Amino acid sequence: MTAYVLVSGPFTGGWVWEETASRLRAAGSEAYPVTLPGVGDRRTGTGTDVDLETHIRDLVRLIDGIRTPRVVLVGHGYGLHPVVGAADRRPERVARIVSLDTGLPGDGEAAVRSVPDPEVRARLADGDGSDGAVSDGSGTGGSGTGGDDGWLAPPEPGTWSRWGSTEGVPAEALARLDRLATPQPARTLTRPLRLTGATAALPVTGVLCTANGSSTDLVQMLVDSGPPQFPALADDRFRFIDLGTGHWPMLSAPEELAEALGRAAAGEGHRVTTSDRTHAQPTHLLPFLLDVPEVPRERRGRVDLHLPGGPGSPTEGAPRFADADADADADADADRPRPAVVLVHGGPVAPDQRPTPRDTPFLLGYARYAASLGAIGVTLDLRLHGLADFPLAAEDLAEAVALVRADPRVDGDRIALWFFSTGGLLAADWLAAPPPWLRCLAASYPALAPLPGWGAVESRFRPVDVVGTADGPPIVLTRAGQEHPTFTATVEEFLAAAGRNGAHIEIVDVPHGHHGFELVDPTEESRACVERAMRSVLGHLRE
Fold first, then answer.
1. Which helix (H) or strand (E) element contains residue 476?
2. How far apart are CA 343 and CA 324, in angstroms?
3. Which band of pLDDT confidence, cut at 50, 70 and 90, is reported for residue 312?
4. What mean pLDDT is reported for the chain?
5. Separation CA 503–CA 474 (nearest Å)
6. Tell me, what's the pLDDT at 274?
7. Is it the case that residue 140 has pLDDT exceeding 80?
8. Is residue 192's pLDDT more than 50?
9. Is residue 160 helix, strand or coil?
10. DSSP characters for 245-297?
11. What's the confidence (pLDDT) of residue 131?
């Protein structure tokens, strides 16, 4: 007999598992839906009385009281933190950890890191990061109200999608979620998870809710070309099961979830593997495909300016822009203000990722390449740490552009914005109301509409809705021929809208290139396409 311990995310309790638990029991299993201390009908005292360790100890006591020799621990959202913590204390009692539409946390990670609502994340960050108490007496929480005495208020009605896609959840279930949700002790989210390493060999199944943006295909793409933590997911102890619903499958698809949990307990599921595209070195640290010289760099807060004319630079202080014809009058124009190319990275990016985007070989390479051709290359670090952070990132970009245009070395009337990957969503503001000094907008393997399940992204960030609706600059679009289908779909929608609205788009195709081809596909084809795109962008700056 299989015994399941079911632990949900913040603001909720064991009641969210009722339908799934009944189906598990009907199949002959034991099911233990958990309401953790300080939540629901277990709320007592103040929020500062309960933290992550309280929840871990509570789960350990529950596991100790279950007669079945080994249990399957299921964690959803925040619930995965105490699940992993309890498994670390009782590894011999755990048959498998099931990560339900949630990334597996590591030692030292606090759950606040993955809170998708930026207002909540910022408010929690104002507390003591080691213990996580939040008590400012304001009476307001990031998503709702009632932030006193260390409590974090639940989302207000209609805003649950900021914590994960609600696709498929019936209206009556959402109403019940609104009615029964209770404040969460803030220290449960801010206290770091402490692990001994005892879970390192335990089997793990990720149940991925595809309508929330997760999928086995996406995991495979990340293993091949994503951040450094992902290749470990190709280890034999990991399996993955896709579930065609939103982030709340216990409410939207309880029967399908129960079936998926049964498969997980049996060790079924898809295993992702490494391939010839999986690099031993983290992808974001791979070298840029062009050998470009170092140039002078100035740091201004979150913004770096890469200036032409550094040692070894072919420009030697003279602008070249997009073609050799510009060299004829280079000496006379050496001191004039230069056009600038602002390079915009995608995300979300983990807040503790090092190096930060502007210091990665990728953005350094593009900025130096622009500077070697006589423009000023601009890189910046956006506060894009979660899906709900795009407004913050948009503010960062607008501030960076204003700073750059105010620099006397920059020709403020000749600016290009170049968006990469999911940074493409930030192009929407500039396409909707293009300023006259924006001479070119470029995008490489972009997402031009929020990806499936990205319901936390504000509707304003949809370039597909605004392309061609205003008289904007020329667009240079670089497409990777081996792109992930979810990105390709947004590009096709964008091109269709551009055609209807008469927007001018130059397409640079990399037929054999993958997402991030400048790092993962350093071929002659890729180099030629990067050179063509850069010279096209700089050519528009000369017009």
1. strand 475-480
2. 24
3. very low
4. 89
5. 8
6. 80
7. no
8. yes
9. helix
10. S-S-HHHH-HHHHHHHHHHHHTT-SB-----TT--SS-GGGSPPSS------E
11. 40
β 151-152/184-185 pair status: antiparallel
Say if CB 237 and CB 201 are below 8 A apart: yes
| CB neighbour class for 253 (10 Å; exposed up to 12, middle 13-18, buried from 19) | buried
Burial class (CB in 10 A: 0-12, 13-18, 19+), 30: middle
Prediction pTM value:
0.75
Q: Per DSSP, what are the bridge partners of residue 419?
A: 344, 443
CA nearest 349: which of 173, 226, 523? 226
Q: For residue 286, give every residue at least 6 positions away whose Cβ sits within 8 Å of its Cβ, in sequence order, or none.
A: 279, 361, 519, 520
Q: What is the mean pLDDT of residues 407-427?
A: 98
Bridge partners (DSSP) of residue 145 are 140
pLDDT at res. 212: 86
Alpha helix segments (H runs only) across 34-186: 52-65, 80-89, 118-125, 171-180
Instruction: Return the closest-CA partner of residue 398 out of 303, 487, 473.
Output: 303
C-beta pairs of 389-397 under 8 Å, 24+ apart in sequence: 389/118, 389/347, 389/348, 390/425, 390/426, 390/457, 390/458, 390/461, 391/118, 391/458, 392/118, 393/347, 393/423, 393/426, 394/426, 394/429, 394/461, 396/302, 397/342, 397/344, 397/426
**Which residues, 6 or more positions from 111, have their beta carbon under 8 angstroms from its beta carbon?**
52, 78, 81, 105, 188, 189, 190, 193
- Mean pLDDT check: name the lowest of 72-81, 135-144, 363-372, 405-414: 135-144
Tell me the C-alpha distance between 241 and 159, whole Å.
27
DSSP letter assigned to residue 426: G
DSSP-derived pairing of the beta strands 438-444 and 410-420: parallel
User: What is the enclosing helix (H) or strand (E) of 23?
Assistant: helix 18-26
Name the H helices within 390-459.
390-406, 427-432
Residue type, 536: S
* Intra-chain end-to-end CA distance of the chain, in Å: 73
Q: Scanning the structure block, which residue is given the tokens 């600016």?
A: 415
Closest CA to 273 of 243, 232, 242, 241: 232
